[in-house]
Write a structure and sequence with these properties.
This protein folds into two domains: about 20-245, Aspartate Aminotransferase, domain 2; about 250-375, Aspartate Aminotransferase, domain 1 (Alpha-Beta Complex). It is about 40% helix and about 15% strand. The strands form two sheets. Strands 1-7-6-5-4-2-3 form a seven-stranded mixed β-sheet, with helices on both faces. The chain is globular. The protein is of the alpha/beta class. Bound molecules: pyridoxal-5'-phosphate. Pyridoxal-5'-phosphate binds near residues 121, 150 and 153. GO terms for molecular function: transaminase activity. Keywords: Aminotransferase, Pyridoxal phosphate, Transferase. InterPro entries: Aminotrans_V_dom (IPR000192), PyrdxlP-dep_Trfase (IPR015424), PyrdxlP-dep_Trfase_major (IPR015421), PyrdxlP-dep_Trfase_small (IPR015422), SP_NH2Trfase/AEP_transaminase (IPR024169). Pfam families: Aminotran_5. Belongs to the class-V pyridoxal-phosphate-dependent aminotransferase family.
């Protein structure tokens, strides 16, 4: 792809040579390497909710039992899809202040041995928690159910070992830690999952939601002819995002995200006022840190005051029922950066001061900088 100089009026996104099948397959292979999987990877031509819904509708059938693990807002969405597939849905929930435990999952599977499908979110950008997928995956694998993982907010921000963890359907998007596009996404499909999907009479076929169409028309045909015109610009952007991560090194990118989370958590504790919403460090997502607003302040007021101090920082109020109490500091992708994290803390400090609070801005910056440097120095 050629990039025009900034002062040229020539369109840079038009008139590109077509994205051919071989190139499309290479991008899928790059995703497979990123996910540490030898399974098939399908690059889905839509935002990540497309493969999430496609995976559920493909692998879940009427009268089957599905275990839905809810640790944030996406789990609620999955529950709706599972029910609309006619599944009996067993729900395990963890408070948004922590993670679900492998023991909770093991107990639910023991109580419902007929469970055929388990849906789990790895990291929750919206609520700032992350779940121990390796341990949960082992429990699910021992039971024999299929495991679907929403890894949209974890890929690139923390280790994601699809095959080692026994994940059958691993869904990612480009728009979080990969700092890529939101318009395409991908799902890895294990051979066990393909078998059950093929046996499911209700699995979508000849449909935008069909994984089987991709299997039959693309994978089984040797990935030599694309079934439809691909979302070319988004695919190229995803490739560039993965190339940029490869150049920096995945370990370094992950370390940058961990450093950002550690810095925000340490900084906020030194600041005085809001506190980390997720209680234990190990349950905190590297992609975003959520904060509990002081009880006598509305989180939306704090966010508005912080953004009035510095409108460029990635600080936002939570959505829905949590909006009053939860402040979200995003630090995924390019925002997993020392200067951005320090600017976010400074904006929160200025906002809190404008609201009449006494906060220790210098202590916050000192603690955050130290925490960042400690993680980055660790190997
Ligand atoms: C961001 C995200 C998605 C993608 O959904 P959008 O609302 O379109 O951003 C899916 N799952 C998780 C866990 C996410 O964090």
């Amino acid at each position: 792809m050629t990039v025009e100089t900034a002062n040229s009026d020539a369109p840079v996104l038009l008139d590109l040579p077509p994205l051919d099948a071989a190139h499309f397959a290479r991008i899928e292979d790059k995703v497979a390497a990123l996910l540490r999987t030898r399974c098939d990877v399908v690059a889905m031509q839509g935002e990540a909710l497309l493969p999430l819904e496609a995976a559920i509708r493909s692998a879940v059938w009427p009268g089957s039992t599905a275990l839905n693990i809810i640790t944030g807002p996406y789990g609620e969405t999955f529950g709706g899809w599972l029910r609309s597939c006619g599944a009996e849905v067993v729900t395990v929930s963890a408070p948004f202040t922590g993670a679900v435990s492998p023991q909770q999952v093991a107990d639910a599977l023991r109580k419902h041995p007929e469970t055929a499908f388990v849906s789990l979110v790895h990291a929750e950008a919206a609520t700032g928690n992350t779940n121990p997928v390796a341990e949960i995956g082992a429990v699910v694998r021992e039971h024999g159910a299929l495991l679907m993982l929403d890894a949209v907010a974890s890929v690139g921000a923390e280790p994601l070992l699809t095959d080692e963890w026994g994940v059958d359907l691993c869904v990612i998007g480009g728009q979080k830690a990969l700092a890529g596009p939101a318009g395409v996404s991908a799902v890895s499909v294990s051979s066990r999952a393909w078998e059950r999907i093929a046996a499911n009479e209700r699995a979508p076929r000849r449909s935008y939601l069909s994984l089987l169409d991709w299997k039959e028309r693309w994978i089984n045909a040797g990935r030599t002819a694309l079934p439809h015109a691909p979302a070319q610009l988004e695919m190229l952007a995803l490739e560039q995002a993965m190339n940029r991560i490869e150049a920096e090194g995945l370990d370094a990118v992950i370390r940058r995200h961990r450093a950002a989370a550690a810095a925000v958590r340490a900084g906020v504790q030194a600041l005085g006022g809001p506190v980390p919403y997720v209680v234990r460090d190990e349950d905190a997502a590297p992609a975003a840190t959520t904060l509990r607003a002081p009880t006598d302040l509305d989180a939306r007021e704090v966010v508005s005051a912080a953004l009035a101090a510095d409108g460029a920082v990635p600080v936002q109020a939570a959505a829905g029922a949590l909006a009053k109490e939860m402040i979200r500091v995003n630090h995924y992708g390019r925002a997993a950066d020392r200067a951005v994290v320090l600017a976010s803390l400074a904006a929160l400090a200025d906002g809190l001061k404008a609201l009449g609070r006494e906060v220790d801005e210098d202590a916050a910056a000192g603690a955050a900088g130290l925490a960042w440097d400690e993680v980055v120095a660790m190997r």
